[in-house]
């Protein structure tokens, strides 16, 4: 009898281990697993948007860039650092607009970013609006392109001496939300 219990336990353990290995195997980035009947099948993913769908400008008027994306010398500390967005020069109180439709996933103070709004968009893209004076959206709110999300401020630890909007584009990649050069999206 003891032998039967051990055999059943081992069969169950092997089945469970096999099930775990199915879920832990890296899957194609172009497919997801679905259960059909008693089988698991790979279904191709259909992206609803591409990187080119974010083409809005976050301010009412085009402006100069105080600090571009990429490796920079910090204008205040003089140290080399990676600037994950662009600083768009604008006076405090200037309205900030959503660059594309999406859902607000963050809307509050966040350390060096100051008052920060993060919007997730279709196609695995995200926009970040930082150093805001005011936030005029709520967590979970659905946003349309050009909706007002806040106003330019000088909260947090700005990298530029001029008042500005710190604007970022990020893509959902295997290592997490990866910063992209916003100049390709600001149109």
From TrEMBL:
Coiled coil: none annotated. Transmembrane segments: none annotated. Its EC number is 3.4.24.-. Pfam families: Peptidase_M23. GO terms for molecular function: hydrolase activity. Residues 82-172 form the M23ase beta-sheet core domain. It is an enzyme of class 3 (hydrolase). Keywords: Hydrolase. It comes from the Bacteria. This is M23 family metallopeptidase. It comes from Okeanomitos corallinicola TIOX110.
């Amino acid at each position: 009898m003891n032998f039967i219990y051990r055999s059943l336990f081992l069969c169950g353990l092997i089945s469970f281990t096999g099930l775990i290995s199915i879920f832990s195997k890296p899957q194609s980035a172009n497919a997801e697993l679905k259960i059909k009947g008693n089988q698991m099948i790979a279904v191709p993913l259909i992206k609803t948007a591409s990187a080119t769908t974010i083409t809005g400008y976050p301010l009412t008027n085009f402006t100069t860039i105080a600090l571009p994306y990429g490796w920079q010398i910090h204008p205040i500390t003089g140290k080399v650092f990676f600037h994950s967005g662009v600083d768009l020069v604008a006076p405090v109180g200037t309205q900030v607009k959503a660059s594309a439709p999406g859902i607000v996933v963050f809307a509050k103070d966040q350390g060096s970013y100051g008052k920060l709004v993060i919007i997730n968009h279709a196609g695995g893209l995200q926009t970040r609006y930082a150093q805001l004076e005011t936030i005029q959206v709520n967590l979970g709110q659905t946003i349309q392109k050009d909706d007002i999300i806040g106003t330019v401020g000088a909260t947090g630890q700005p990298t530029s001496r001029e008042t500005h909007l710190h604007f970022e584009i990020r893509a959902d990649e295997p290592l997490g939300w990866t910063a992209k050069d916003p100049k390709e999206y600001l149109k």
